[in-house]
Design brief:
heterodimer; A: alpha/beta; Ubiquitin-like (UB roll); Fumarate Reductase Iron-sulfur Protein, Chain B, domain 2; six-stranded mixed β-sheet; two-stranded antiparallel sheet; B: mainly alpha; 3 helical TM bundles of succinate and fumarate reductases; 4 helices; about 75% helix
């Protein structure tokens, strides 16, 4: 259901202000969402003054700098720092993206950093993605071929392989799903752009033999048709993929298929 | 002490894009149009009931509020039609490129205003 306001325990309060101690002239204010599960308090937004003269180019570098030099209690996920693992997905300047591939130069003024929207927060910038992973599991994202030999290579033509481009590159960072208002309101039933893009990836795979079953499974008023082409997903995707188009293609297949 | 995990902010912090703006306006104008059509039907059925009603409706529609409602409905219908065409094209699988969605979104927004002006001028026997 549409719930515009945040629940009472989620209302964001004003937090601490960390004044710069380096004496740098090139300062930037970074506002970061904080929530400590052990405190029992509401979430707050802390402001940090960061010396930009000694900071590399990406938003993740700012976070590392804050954690290393200013406030070690800050919690966030990160791993590869090269836009491959999808761990550091968060809301930066009002838009979802990977902290490690978002240059801070592209954001004007103070930088606001929040966890991915509409998730249960575990701590600070870490959101709970369990629901999304369960949905991902529900589409059975693995190859299903019963007739063909398990030990022999399944040959795929170049054309069929090309169909997977733009779908297999997804790193499941959840930037798209958590940017989608439909997913905010119906995240328990609607699969969301990330999972639907993966559903599409297996539906169009020429080696997969359960195309009809997969299509039938996803053909549901709530699972699929909650996509209203708001296109927040496509504009959020840090890998430049197009989940909205994949969803439209699934809808098209269903409109022309005999199921 | 374990606290119930808060919900991270969503619509409060998420930046609006042209595509999301067009999408939500499409829904709002859809609702306005349903109310508008009901309202127009009501006026028409009142006309059947007699001449006095015509005077009353005429008076109402030439008042400031009446004019605002007429212009508002004209815009709302124009927006809905253009946006619906955009959606039809998208249902065919075209126009999902980010740049193109931005352009078609802008066409819908400016087009709806242009259409409103055109309809207004037609109503004023300008052409």
């Amino acid at each position: 259901m549409v719930q515009i306001n945040l629940p009472q325990n989620s209302e964001v309060k004003k937090g601490k202000y960390f004044k710069d101690k380096t004496g740098s002239k090139n300062l930037r204010r970074i506002n970061i969402y904080r929530w400590d599960p052990s405190s029992g308090e509401n979430p707050r937004v802390d402001t940090y003054e960061v010396d930009m003269d000694n900071c590399p180019s990406k938003v993740l570098d700012i976070l590392n700098k804050i954690k290393n030099e200013i406030d070690p209690t800050l919690a966030y996920r990160r791993s590869c720092a090269h836009g491959v693992c999808g761990s550091c997905a968060m809301n930066i300047g009002g838009k979802n993206g990977l902290a490690c591939t978002t240059p801070h130069k592209e954001i004007n003024g103070d930088i606001d950093i929040y966890p991915l929207p509409h998730l249960k927060v575990k701590k600070d910038l870490i959101g709970d993605l369990d629901g999304l992973y369960k949905q991902y599991q529900s589409i059975e994202p693995w190859l299903k071929s019963n007739s063909k030999s398990q030990t022999k290579e399944i040959i795929q033509s170049k054309e069929d392989r090309a169909k997977l481009d733009g779908a297999y590159e997804c790193i499941m960072c959840a930037c798209c799903s958590t940017s989608c208002p439909s997913y905010w309101w119906n995240g328990d039933k609607y699969l969301g752009p990330a999972v639907l893009l993966q559903a599409y990836r297996w539906i169009i795979d020429s080696r997969d033999e359960e195309r009809q079953v997969r299509l039938k499974k996803v053909a549901d008023e709530l699972k699929l048709y909650r996509c209203h082409t708001i296109l927040n997903c496509t504009s959020a995707c840090p890998k430049g993929l197009n989940p909205a188009k994949a969803i439209a293609e699934i809808k098209k297949m269903l409109a022309t298929a005999n199921i | 002490m374990e606290n119930k995990a808060p919900l991270s902010p969503h619509i409060q912090i998420y930046k609006w894009h042209i595509s999301s703006l067009v999408s939500i306006t499409h829904r709002i104008t859809g609702i306005i149009n349903i109310i508008g059509i009901t309202f127009i039907c009501l006026l028409v059925s009142l006309l059947i009931l007699g001449e006095n009603n015509y005077e009353m409706i005429n008076l109402f529609l030439s008042s400031m509020i009446g004019k605002f409602i007429i212009l508002g409905l004209t815009w709302s219908f124009s927006f809905q039609i253009l946006s619906e065409i955009r959606h039809l094209i998208m249902d065919l699988g075209y126009g999902f490129d980010l740049k193109i969605t931005k352009i078609t979104g802008l066409i819908v927004i400016t087009g709806s205003i242009v259409l409103t002006v055109v309809f207004y001028l037609i109503g004023k026997n300008f052409f």
